[in-house]
Design brief:
- It contains three helices and four strands.
- Strands 1-2-3-4 form a four-stranded mixed sheet.
- It is globular and about 30 Å long.
Length: about 90
């Protein structure tokens, strides 16, 4: 299960991902988040992955798609990953 919280504070769009990010669950929220970023042309987008338990390659691809969207609108993307979930994913 994936839960996505987002908020806009002080010119920054924050996205918090909670649970598992995989091919079964991200597609429901995928379009919504990309549309929000494109419509509002946020200068800064921060994705917090600290609460993710598991990520598969499809989940990683999803984050790369968000990166592409931010790049298109010349926004800055930061991914917070204190649990090193992506390092573990790439080393498996």
């Amino acid at each position: 299960m994936l839960k996505i919280n987002y908020e806009f504070r002080k010119g920054i769009f924050f996205i918090r991902l909670i649970g598992n990010l995989n091919n079964k669950n991200y597609k429901q929220e995928d379009i919504k988040i990309k549309e929000i970023i494109i419509e509002n042309k946020f200068k800064y987008v921060v994705i917090n992955t600290n609460y993710l338990k598991k990520v598969d390659m499809d989940g990683l691809s999803y984050l790369l798609e968000i990166f592409d969207v931010t790049k298109e609108i010349e926004s800055n993307l930061v991914i917070c990953d204190k649990n090193s979930i992506f390092k573990r994913l790439l080393n498996d």
